[in-house]
Structure formats: structure tokens, C-alpha cells
Amino acid sequence: MNPEISQPAPADLCAQCHEGTYQSITKDYTVELRDGDQCTIANLAQRKCNQCGHVVLPWPSVQRVDRAVADHTEPLTAEFLKQTRERLQPNMTLLAESLGLGSKTWMRWEKGEQNISRSMGYFVRAMAQFPEVYEWVADRAWRYDNKAQQATTQRPSITIDEILMKVLSDTRAVKSRKAAELKENVIIGKRSLDEMYSKNITISKKDRVYYRRGDIQYVDPRFAESMEVA
Question: Which residues contact 103 (CB under 8 A, 6 or more apart)?
């Protein structure tokens, strides 16, 4: 029995549903990138199944998409990555681990075996422009910054407590001082009255008048014996 020889599928037969055929169309094509970003290529030649809608791109369209994505994501060249690494940390493994990457990630970037995300590309550019950014990340300096911030955050509560205690102490001191002054004034006033009644003080007739009603003058009886009228 001769084996059955399968016939090659027509070139236009859909590889997805195996029922429809591809039709040539031209329309905008959107590529989903990393970090939720998108890149849209206008008027791109495509082939779409008339049954299930499966889309395939001819080789010229694939090349056009690659160029558009490269322009959109602004990829870093291998030479730029090498120069940046030599300036920051010549050892690829140490550089990758300092940045929190896999030990061979940077090597794959330089060889073009792995693409760099758009956000990571921006970060590498920042490190290349400002090497202190790499030093800060490599030293994990944010850990020390967090401790300093926590110490700064706790310090105001201590200061407020100290201020409140000082205010309370000052208030008590002021009240005590006022009470002492009031007591002293009372003593001085009492002494003055005592001296006034115990000594003969010359006083004018006008000053000794207690109050006046018409032509009758009422004199304070205390002045009758203890004061001489001038």
C-alpha cells in the first residue's frame, strides 16, 4: 500500500483556520511594546484572512515595523553601552548586580541578544550623563536616606515635648512671680495705711473733706484726731 502524499497547502490559505485565504490590505498597524507603550505604523501593507481575520506581515512590512519601533523606543547602541560600562564598572557581572539585574543581562544587551526596555534605556542614559546616579544605586544609598528621614521625622515630636515643658515651666514661674508681687503690694499698702493712721500728717482742709453736699462738708472722722489741718 502506497503511503498517502499530502499536497502542499496553497500559499494564500490561512495558517490559522485553514479555511479562509489571505487578502492584501493596507491599514495602520499598532505594536504593543513594553511598559504599556504602543507604536503605530501608518499605512502598512498586510495580509488578512477573509474568514478568521488572522493577519500576517510580508517581509518588507516586518522591516518597516522594526525600524519604526527602533525610532520610537530610541534603543541604545552596543558601543554606547560598552562605553558606559567601562566608565562606571568594567565588570559586566558587578555592573548588572549593582543595578539589580541578572548577572548576564548587561552582556546580552551589549551583544544585542536582548532588547532594553524604553524606561531602562532612559535610566542608562541618566547614569551615563551623571555617574553619581550609578554610585547612589550601587551603594544602596536610599537605605541610609530612609534612616536619616526617619530620624528627622521623629525629632520634631521630641522638640514639641521639650517646648511644651518649657512653656509650662515658664507659665508657672510667671504666675509665681505675679503672686509674689501682688502679696508684696498688699503688704506695702497695708504698711502705708498703718503709717498713715499712726503718725500725724499735715493735710489741707480741702483734702480732708470726705464729701460735700451743698454748703455742708463732711470730713472723714479718722482725720479728726490723727491729722492736723493746715
Answer: 93, 96, 97
